Amino acid sequence: MKKVPLRQCIGCGEMKSKRxxxxxxxxxxxxxxxDATGRKNGRGAYLCPAMECLKKAVKSKGLERSFKMAIPxxxxxxxxxxxxxxxx
Length: 88
Description:
- Pfam families: YlxR (PF04296).
- Helices cover about 35% and strands about 25% of the residues.
- By secondary structure, the chain is α+β, with helices and mostly antiparallel strands.
- The N and C termini lie far apart (about 35 Å).
């Protein structure tokens, strides 16, 4: 049997398979993006595909801890819009 890679959600803290999660990356140019393919270059953090997990990550500053930098509010707004598209 093949080992399934598990990742921890920065919002709720649950461990899930990599395929069930959404990858948020910080590019070498310090840009924060959603990585739908899971293959883009950059430092990655994982979120469950639920708006409540994104809200928990914002409240607990999960992204800021993962990327070791301050995250501007515009980035969170962009992530919320992307998440809404995915939930539909």
